[in-house]
Amino acid sequence: PVPMGTSAEPALPGIQDLRAECRGSVDSVSSTRTLGRPAEAAQSPGRDRARSRQLTPVERRYFALLREAERISTSAEGLEQDAVELSRRTQSALQDRGDGDEEAVGLVLKLEGSAAKLKGMRSRMREIEGDVIRCLRENPDLATQEPPEELVVGFSDTPDDHHTYQMDPLLGAATPSHGHWVPEVFPPSPQPRQEEAEEEDAEVARCMGGRLLHLEVGTASLPTVDCILVEPMGKLLDPEGFASSGLVIILHGMPACEEISKEWTEVMKMTRLLDGGLTVLMPLILAPDPSVEPDDLRAMTVRAMEALGHSSCIVFGKAWGGPWAAEIAAMAEDPDSGLRDKVVALVVFAPSHVQQDIAVRAMQLPTFLTWASDDQESDFEGNSPAWIAGLRLSPPPTLWAMVQEGGHYLPTVLEREASSLWGREVGLALSFFVMACHVRRAVSKHRSLAAGAIEVPQEIHRLCGELPDFLSERLGQGTKTPAALALEQLAQQVGAREALDNLDRVVNAWLASNLAEPQRTPATQEARQADPAQGGGGGGFVPSGFAKEEPAAPMCPRRAPKEARGPGDKSDLGSA
User: Fold this and answer.
1) Fewer C-beta within 10 Å: the chain N or C terminus?
2) What gap in Å lies between CA 376 and CA 212, rounded to an integer?
3) 571 and 392 Cβ atoms separated by less than 8 Å
4) Residue 505: its pLDDT value, please?
5) Which residues pair with 244 in a beta bridge?
6) Which of 257-261, 321-325, 550-554, 568-572 has the highest average model confidence (pLDDT)?
7) What confidence tens digit (pLDDT) does each residue in 172-224 have?
8) Taking phi first (over 0 means left), then psi (-120 to 50 degrees means alpha), and beta for anything else, what does residue 257 get?
9) Cα separation of 252 and 498, whole Å?
10) Count of CB atoms situated within 10 Å of the CB of 172
11) 327: how many CB neighbours lie within 10 A of its CB?
C-alpha cells in the first residue's frame, strides 16, 4: 500500500516482488512434475498425451491443478502490467495534486487491491504445489505425461455459461442445438462399427451430434441401411457403464440434408430425448419406396435393437415414414415377427395415407398423433381417414392433437399448445408420453431386483427426471418433490422393488388417463369444449386422483349411441 503524502514509487517494487513470488510458485509447481523421476524421463520423446483413454481421478486432479496454476500465472502477468500503469498514474497524480486529491486516493486503493489479489494468488500457488506433490507421490508416472487438451463448450452467447471440459477421450466436439456435446472421434465401444459413407450423410450426422452407422439388415430388398445414431453424452463417455434408457427409431423417408438435421435436432431438444438417456436411431430409407416390404422393416427393427443392445423401442414416423412406423407397430402383436412385446409405443406426425387395418392394429399400442391444420405437404383431409379409424378403436393411452398452425415443420408444431393435451405444449406432452412409456417397460425389466435392494436402476432414475413433479404425490412424497427424487426416497423407505411396483401403478394410471393433470380448472375444461379442432385423447377409465373429463364433440357426423359403443370406441373424439 502507498502511504498518503509519499511517492507511489515504493509500491511498485512490492508489486513486482509479489509477482516474482507468484511466478516462483508456478515454476515450483512445474518442477514437481519430474519429482522422483530421472530428468531424462521427462524429456523422453516417447511421452504420451493422455487422449485415448479415460483419466483416473488422480490424473484428473493433477492436470486440473496444473491448468489452474497456468491460469493464475496468466492472471498475475496481467495484474503486474496493470500495477505498472497504476503506479505511474498514481505517482503523477500525487506529484501534481497532492495526497488529498480524490483521483490519487482512488488510484492508491486500486494499487492496494492489486497487491491483495497477488498475495492471494501466491497463497493459492503454495497450496497447488503441495497438492501436486501429493499426486506425484501417489502416481509418479504423471511426471512424464503431457496434460490433455481442453475444450470450451457453451450453448449460449454468454461466456459465463460456457464450461471447460477435458477433451480426453474426445478429440473434437460438435455442439448441436439439442444441447449435448459429443466427440468427433469415439472411444472404443461395443456398438456397430462406423463405416465410410457419403460425405453429405456423414456431415449431417455430425451436425446432429451423432455418427453414421452401417446397419446390416440382411433381407433381399434391404440388405443394408445407413443410419444416423445419436446417443446421450453419458453413453459416449462411458460406453460400458452407462445404461441407455431406451431406443427411439425415427422414420421420415427423406434424404440426409441440412433441413433434416435442423428439424430433428430441434425435435430432440424440445422432447428432451437425450436428457432422458434415450438413444435415437434414424434409418436413411427414402420414401416412397415400393421395394421396401414389411419384412424389411421388421428385420431392420430387430437388427437395430440387437446391434444397439436394446430389447424394445418406440417408433416415430413422419409423413411417408408414418405408414412404415405403423407397419412396425402392427407387427408387435404377431408372435412370429420377432417384435412381439418389443415395440413400446407409436408416435406419428402428419402421416401419409395408410391401410385402415394396419392403422387399427398399430394403434392398439400407446399412440401419440399430431397434425397441423395448415400442413400443405401432408394434408389432413386426404391422409387422415384410416388414422381416425384407428383412433376411434384404440385403447388408452391414445393422445391426439390438431394444432391450427405449424405447417409441416415439426419444431413449430411442437411449440404450440393443445387443449386436448391439457393445455400443454405438444412437445412437452410428447416428452412425457415417451418417458412414461419407457418407464413402464424399464420397470418390467427390473422385476427381479433382489429383496432389500434400495438402489433405483439408473435408467429409470433418468427417465423419472423428465416426468412432472406432481406424480411425486402419487408416490407419497409430496407435490414439490421431483419425481426422480421421490422415487429414491420411496426406495429408501420400502425398498427398490416395492418402489418400482408403486411407480409402475402410478405411471400406468397416468397413461390410462391420457396424461391427465391431477386437477382440472373450469377454464381448461371450457377451452377443451370450446375448441373442438384440438381433438382429444383416447377413451378409457380415469383412475383415482386424476380428473375426469366430459366427451368432446364428435369426430364424425354419424356418431353411434353410447350403449352401442364398446369400451375402446373413440367416437367421442373432437371434430378436426
Assistant:
1) N
2) 31
3) yes
4) 93
5) none
6) 321-325
7) 444 566 767 555 444 443 344 444 446 778 778 888 888 888 999 999 989 99
8) beta
9) 40
10) 12
11) 25
- Is the pTM value of this prediction over 0.85? no
Residue 313: closest CA among 286, 349, 288, 280: 280
**Grid coordinates in use for 157?**
452467447
Q: Which residues pair with residue 151 across a beta bridge?
A: 165
Please tell me the distance from the alpha carbon of residue 111 to that of residue 133, in angstroms, as a whole number.
33
Measure the CA–CA gap between 1 and 118, rounded to whole angstroms: 13
Confidence of residue 432 (pLDDT cuts 50, 70, 90): very high
Report the Cα–Cα distance between both ends of the chain, in Å, rounded. 78
Q: Name the more confident of 153 and 337.
A: 337
pLDDT given at position 42 = 38
Cell of residue 88, nine digits: 505511474
3-state SS string over 18-78? HHHHHHHHHHHHHHHHHCCCCHHHHCCCCCCECCCCCCCHHHHHHHHHHHHHHHHHHHHHH
Q: Is the peptide bond before 397 cis (omega within 30 degrees of 0)?
A: yes
The H or E element that residue 211 is part of is strand 211-216
Cα–Cα distance, 342 to 39 (Å, whole number): 61
CA dihedral (512, 518, 522, 526) positive or negative: negative
36 Rama class: left (phi>0) / alpha (psi -120 to 50) / beta: left
Q: Which three cell numbers stand for residue 53?
A: 483413454
